[in-house]
Design a protein that fits this description.
The chain is an alpha+beta fold. The protein is built from 13 helices and eleven strands. Helix 1 crosses helix 2 and helix 11 (375-384) packs across helix 12. The radius of gyration is 34 Å and the shape is extended.
Length: 457
């Protein structure tokens, strides 16, 4: 094999490679000998088919297979020989090939740039600490209490009111006819929540236990059976029971039902969960602050093929006119992402940062704990999608690098309340090309917190 550097311009190198026809013929003979032992043809005993016969029938496919293997092997050796740090997939251009000829081809290689990292000691960023006000904690406690309230039976003569729980059987008809799914047994709804059908709850106000009542309703537009969507329906209901909310104190006993030791422990857990949600959003802002400085303070030549690949990934779901309209912005964003990726990777390599399989499994377990009841689905997702595990590994790698950078720079701690946090997050989420490098954070509404069992993990 003969390898020459045909041209070198910036990060792009073109290598000219010649593979002697004798070496190619040796590979061809090896393949023919292998096939002689394997091929079974009519009129010949197994393993006794002449090589000439095999070549006459399979020659072209054998040559193609041999050349493909030689291209992979020799291009890899050529890159190693010239000590090139390849960025992306090299492009191969065949110049001469064919049986009885030397193989002559060129490979175009885009190389990774040499990255010189600046000292991070002069970088600055804000580390947020958040104080969750007592009112927000108490409001969330009240909400949890409402969502987990208990009911007790009303007397047979007491009428149902908004807030009560009514249990009933029903038989529904459309134009006097039954339909698939028109019967229900032991259905319980809390009046006022309107979770069954629109306008259904208010028609049950005033009913009593053992009473029968016919209600009018319209089936939803998104009904699973399209022929039933928006149909006017009559529900003949038999009231089985009426219950009223049971007054229960938000005390230590209630806290234990929610998985806490006592009421103070429950408040502490609520505070931690709300705080964690805010900090997740605020940490994205700190991350942007750091990465902006990393990008701004480094000059890096970027491999064009990596930029092209990134643009392709970013715009794969866009229509041609949308791609053209945002062409310049997409290119700017792609360059920013590639530049930051190269810089962070260099910092990770220089500091010997690694991510173990155990760390990836630990992160998957965190996701499982955060989505109770969906453990099997999450595990199967990662088992069936190796790229998802690789992506998760990349995220952990990036976070470890950022944590190391944080330890090297000046972090100004700023304590804020929830109102200030909402304002900061809202400002960060305003449309901005630069912000598109990062995941947008979410405004932390009070309803975002889980209101079932409170986990300590």
């Amino acid at each position: 094999m003969k390898v020459e550097v045909k041209s070198k311009k910036g990060l792009r190198t073109i290598l000219s490679i010649i593979v002697d026809k004798k070496n190619i013929q040796l590979k061809m003979d090896e393949k023919l000998n292998q096939l002689q032992k394997e091929v079974a043809l009519k009129g010949f005993r197994p393993g006794k088919v002449p090589s000439a016969v095999i070549k006459s029938q399979f020659g072209k496919s054998i040559y193609g297979e041999v050349i493909d293997k030689i291209l992979r092997e020799t291009s890899s050796k050529a890159i190693d020989e010239k000590k090139l740090r390849v960025a992306g997939q090299p492009k191969i251009d065949l110049k001469q090939f064919g049986e009885g000829k030397d193989l002559n081809y060129e490979i175009q290689v885009d190389c990774l740039p040499n990255v010189i990292l600046k000292n991070f000691n002069e970088f600055k960023a804000t580390n947020f600490k958040i104080k969750i006000e007592d009112k927000i904690i108490n409001d969330k406690l009240k909400e949890i209490s409402e969502q987990n309230k208990q009911f007790e039976d009303k007397t047979d003569n007491e009428k149902a009111a908004i807030g009560d729980q009514v249990t009933f059987d029903y038989l529904a008809t459309i134009d006097g006819k039954n339909f698939d799914g028109s019967e229900g047994k032991g259905v319980s709804i809390e009046l006022g929540k309107d979770l069954f059908l629109k306008g259904f709850d208010e028609q049950l106000v005033g009913v009593k236990k053992n009473e029968s009542k016919t209600l009018d309703a319209v089936l939803p537009a998104n009904h699973p059976k399209k022929e039933l969507a928006n149909k006017k329906t009559k529900f003949k209901c038999k009231i089985l029971n009426v219950k009223k909310p049971k007054k229960s104190a938000v005390d230590d006993n209630f806290a234990k039902l929610m998985g806490a030791k006592n009421i103070e422990d429950l408040k502490s857990l609520i505070e931690k969960q709300i705080s964690s949600q805010y900090l997740q959003a605020l940490n994205s802002i700190t991350k942007k602050e750091i990465l902006d400085q990393v990008e701004k303070n480094h000059q890096v030549d970027l491999p064009q093929n990596l930029i092209d690949q990134e643009i392709l990934i970013m715009t794969k779901n866009l229509k041609p006119d949308e791609k053209e309209k945002h062409k310049l912005n997409n290119e700017k964003l792609a360059k920013s992402r590639i530049k930051l990726g190269l810089l962070l990777n260099e910092y990770g390599e220089k500091n010997n940062i690694k991510v173990s399989d155990e760390e990836v499994r630990g992160e998957i377990q965190k996701q499982i704990k955060g989505m109770p009841g969906q453990e099997k689905m999450i595990l199967e997702y990662y088992q069936k999608n190796p790229s998802a595990s690789q992506s998760l590994k990349g995220s952990i790698y990036e976070e470890k690098i950022l944590e190391l950078i944080k330890s090297k720079i000046k972090l100004n701690t700023k304590e804020i309340n929830t109102k200030e946090a909402e304002k900061i997050i809202s400002e960060f989420n305003k449309p901005d090309l630069d912000n598109e490098k990062f995941s947008k954070t979410k405004s932390i509404g009070k309803n975002k917190l889980k209101s079932k069992k409170i986990s300590k993990k």
